[in-house]
Amino acid sequence: MSGRTGDARSTAWERAVRRGADVLLAAVALLVLTPLLLAIVLSIRLDSPGPALFRQARVGAGRRTFTVYKFRSMRIGGDDAALRDLIAAELRGEDTSSKGSWKIDADPRVTRTGRLLRRTSLDELPQLVNVLRGDMSLVGPRPCLPWEATMFPAEFADRFTVRPGLTGLWQVSGRSTVGTLDMLRMDVEYVRTRNLALDARILLATVPSMLGGDGAR
C-alpha cells in the first residue's frame, strides 16, 4: 500500500468541493429523474412479485458496512453461489469470459425488466440516496459485497480508503467486458491518482457509457 492514498491525499478544500458536488448533483438528479424513477418502480412491480427497491449490505470506506439501495433486477430468493464461484475463479486468474463478457451468461435470476435495468445501469439510480447520506460518492470504486471484500487480495486494499462510487473508472471502461482483477486494478489506479478533474471526466463519460449498454454484473 502506498503511504498516502484516497482522502489522505486530498486537501480539505478538495474534500469539501467533492462532498458539496455530491450532495448538489445527487439532489438535483433525484428531483429531475423522479418521473423516470416512478416508471421504473411500476415496471418492476408489474414484471415480477416483490418490492421494487432492493437493499443489500456493501463495504465502504474504511471497510465499514452500509446498506446500498438499488432497483430490484432479480427474482426473489435467488442464489448467488454461481457469482461467488465466478469471482473466486477470476481472482485465481482464470479466464471466465463468455463472448467478451465477464457477466454470468443468461443469468436465470434476472427478470425481463431487470435485464434492461442492468444493461443501462438504471438499477443503480437509487444509490443517489446513498450519495446524499454520505455512504457513497458520485465517483469512486464499486461498492463491493462483504464476501467479495474478504476475497480481494491485500494488494488492492487501497480501494477501501475512499467512499465507493455510483460511477468510476471501471464503469466507464467497459464494465461487463472487464474482469474482476482488472476492475480492482482500475480501483487502485483511481484512488492513487484521484483528483477533481479526473472525477469530472468520469462523470462526463458515464452517460455515454450507460447509453452504450455495457451493463453490470
Description:
The longest helix has 21 residues, at 12-32. It is globular, with a radius of gyration of 17 Å. It is built from 8 helices and 4 strands, in the order H-H-E-E-H-H-H-E-H-E-H-H. 33% of the residues are buried. Helix 1 (12-32) runs antiparallel to helix 5 (127-133). The chain has a two-stranded antiparallel sheet. Strands 3-4 form a two-stranded parallel ribbon. The protein is 45% helix and 9% strand. It has helices at residues 12-32, 34-47, 81-91, 112-120, 127-133, 146-151, 180-193, 196-211; strands spanning 53-59, 65-71, 137-139, 165-167. The chain has 217 residues and is mainly α. A hairpin with a 5-residue loop joins strand 1 (53-59) and strand 2 (65-71).
Largest sheet descriptor? 2 strands, antiparallel
**Inertia-based shape:** globular
Gap between N and C termini, in Å?
A: 28 Å
The H-and-E topology, N to C, reads as HHEEHHHEHEHH
Please tell me the overall pLDDT: 86
Number of helices: 8
Helix content: 40-55%
Quaternary organisation of the protein chains: single chain
The side-by-side strand order for the widest beta sheet comes to: 1-2
Q: Nearest-angstrom radius of gyration?
A: 17 Å
**Helix-and-strand structural type:** mainly alpha
Count every beta strand, where a strand is a DSSP E run of 2 or more residues. 4
Uncertain segments are: none
Short structural summary:
The protein has helices spanning 12-32, 34-47, 81-91, 112-120, 127-133, 146-151, 180-193, 196-211, and strands spanning 53-59, 65-71, 137-139, 165-167.
